[in-house]
Amino acid sequence: VFNKVESENTVSVKTIKVHMLIGKRIIKSYLRFEEDVPGEIVDLMGGFKKIRVTLAQTTNSRLVSDFRTSINQLSGEEWLSVHNGSQWIYLKGDQNGHGVIKRITVAISAPQASQLVYVNMKCNLTPSQLSQLINFAMHSEEGKKFLKEQVKD
Questions:
Q1: Which end of the chain is more exposed for a tag (fewer CB within 10 A), N or C?
Q2: What is the C-alpha to C-alpha distance for residues 150 and 84, in angstroms, rounded to an integer?
Q3: pLDDT at 79
Q4: Residue 115: CB partners within 8 Å, gap ≥ 6?
Q5: DSSP annotation string for the chain
Q6: Beta carbons of 119 and 52 less than 8 angstroms apart
Q7: What is the pLDDT of residues 9-25, one digit of tens each?
Q8: Contact 54/117 with Cβ under 8 angstroms?
């Protein structure tokens, strides 16, 4: 997404790879006890195989625009698209020939923090399981706050 020569002094990029052998247990425990998430949602975490999170910090509006264009050109079916002013979230899923989602891509722009977030997840979920996760997230306290802000704009 970022041309190294053009963005060398205007963007800071960090990538985190989540090791799922340990990560699944931590995530499931957190969701069960800290967030009081229903068991069927916690069990869906078992469908995730690999997660990589890339965080970029930049104040260069051209890079934000390039990031958004790149995300729109990624393969996969768009499952979620939420816009709140200059803040946006995209979620895309790639399915195999049997209708199983093998890859999920999430892109988030948080301009107030000058951040772009790109999450790439390998998984093994059905479309109905992905819909359950999206619906739960959008009806959680954070999801409700985001949706209320979106309605105001």
A1: C
A2: 5
A3: 85
A4: 55, 56, 57, 108, 109
A5: ---HHHHTTTEEEEEEEE-HHHHHHHHHHHHHHTS---HHHHHGGGGEEEEEEEEEEE--HHHHHHHHHHHHHSSSEEEEEEEETTEEEEEEEEE-TTS-EEEEEEEEEEGGGTEEEEEEEEEEE-HHHHHHHHHHHHHSHHHHHHHHHHHH-
A6: yes
A7: 778 888 899 888 888 88
A8: yes
